[in-house]
Amino acid sequence: MKNNLKPYIQLIQSGEVVAFPTETVYGLGADAWNPSAIRKVFETKGRPSDNPLIVHISDERQLEQFAAHISQNAQKLMDAFWPGPLTLVLNKKSEVLDLITAGLDTVALRMPNHGLALEFIGKAGPLVAPSANTSGRPSPTKAEHVHEDFGKDFPVIDGGPTEVGLESTVLDLTSEVPAILRPGKIGAEEISQVLGIGIKFGSPQNKKEEAPKSPGQKYSHYKPKASVFYDKITVRKPENLYLLQDGDESPASKNVINYRGNLELLSRELYDRFRQADLESYQAVFIEPIEAFKDDFPAYYAALINRIEKAASS
Ligand code: TXA
Ligand code: MG
């Protein structure tokens, strides 16, 4: 797969939006200093304007354009995890566009661990990039997922399937105790270890009535058209897709996939399975409980439970 980035860089420079791969999911990129380009991001996704965007950088020096102050904790975490799937919420500089932060006085920043992404950001400048899906749908983990949502002619830099498959961990460093606002591959234990202090999980993630610290958490997310159920599977029907977690069963039918407790693989493939269910007109996706594998994959466990619960919620 050879990608000539030049036309995509030119699109960004002329104020257009371009989808690009990261190690987590595909992002919908736009110039972080161009208000009309950022508006196109919200329009393309149908995203509510009160849900702020992550600024993607390729070089720590670009942080100074956005963050008012880089604390010791922020520096320790960048040294340990960047480039990587950890987004840091820091106090913003006043110049940062309100469109990005939805009027908050903080800004979310991340440096993705992906060669094409780093090259693209390096040449096109810091980019805002939400996941490149229609709001509410599962995030894209393949270029074709972006085409499903935005059309076959939509500009996408194709980097193949993404490695992690679930969005980055979002960590708020502006509260007294650092708080995970969205769980991801980088888990609470690893973060605590680097900081040498305990951290907490952020504001309630499903309570619409409370003003959430991370506004994105109040909206419905990650949903295929098929209904999602997180439960023990008793009777199987051919019109449903089943993601099993255990047992020696080598399923014969193509609507039964056994992950054998590999939560890393389930994370990588979950959104693709959701989209596959829709393409093949399955009515429901049943996910067998994953608790038994919690201790083997604590970070993936927390991230998966968060996504599955949202996908399964009405
Ligand atoms: O892995 C990822 O993070 C992907 C790839 C493309 O980098 N991006 C992504 O972006 O998932 P998005 O927009 O789908 O999710 C961003 C999350 C939302 O939950 C949003 O509310 C939160 O980050 N967020 C952004 N800025 C914030 C801020 N200043 N304070 C708190 N939460 C913020
Ligand atoms: Mg998203």
TrEMBL record:
GO CC terms in record: cytoplasm
Keyword ATP-binding: yes
Binding of ATP, residues: R47, N51, T106, S131, S139, Y222
EC number per UniProt: 2.7.7.87
Enzyme class: transferase
PROSITE patterns with a match to the protein in the record: YRDC (PS51163)
Domain YrdC-like: 2-186
GO molecular function: ATP binding; double-stranded RNA binding; L-threonylcarbamoyladenylate synthase; tRNA binding
GO BP annotations listed: regulation of translational fidelity; tRNA processing
Keywords: ATP-binding, Cytoplasm, Nucleotide-binding, Nucleotidyltransferase, Transferase, tRNA processing
Top-rank taxon, per record: Bacteria
Subcellular location, record wording: Cytoplasm
Residues bound to L-threonine: T24, H56, R110, A129, S168, R182
Function text: Required for the formation of a threonylcarbamoyl group on adenosine at position 37 (t(6)A37) in tRNAs that read codons beginning with adenine.
NCBIfam families reported in the protein's UniProt record: L-threonylcarbamoyladenylate synthase
Protein's UniProt name: Threonylcarbamoyl-AMP synthase
